[in-house]
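Lab notebook, bench 4. The sequencing result for the construct came back, and we need a structural model before the next group meeting so we can plan mutations. Quick request posted to the team channel:

Model the 3D structure of this chain.
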Amino acid sequence: MSSQLPAKLQGIVDQFAAAPRELRLPALLGYSRRVPEPPRHLIDSAAFEKVPECQTPFALATELDPDGAVHLHFDAPAEAPTVRGFAGILREGLEGASVEEIQRVPLDFYMDMGLIELVTPLRLRGMEAILARIKSRLKEADAGAA
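Done. Here's the predicted structure in token form:
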């Protein structure tokens, strides 16, 4: 699985995998603080899509540069730090990657991080739904650009 991840995301996965169990939750919560506010022009636009499979009110937008680099934007409440932390991991690990690189990321890449020991199965399904929605949005954008 790990060979399919972009280098930045692989680095994050490796750090979590190597960390003692008791340090993984604080690390995940640390990523929750790294999610920047979404750009104003996206917040009230149709570009911001809700992820209904997520137990938490969560929305995302994707943007493509002319050179094909992907930019991710998330709106996740601070009251949901584990989901917001996962969004921070995705943003840090996938920001600037290509559509093709992101499409190769397995939906359950978090399994190698030891998150299954920290996060409920319902939240994990929501996390998978976030990545699935990103992939779907990028597939649509890529098809529209062709």
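DSSP finds six helices and three strands in the chain.
Will bring this to the meeting.
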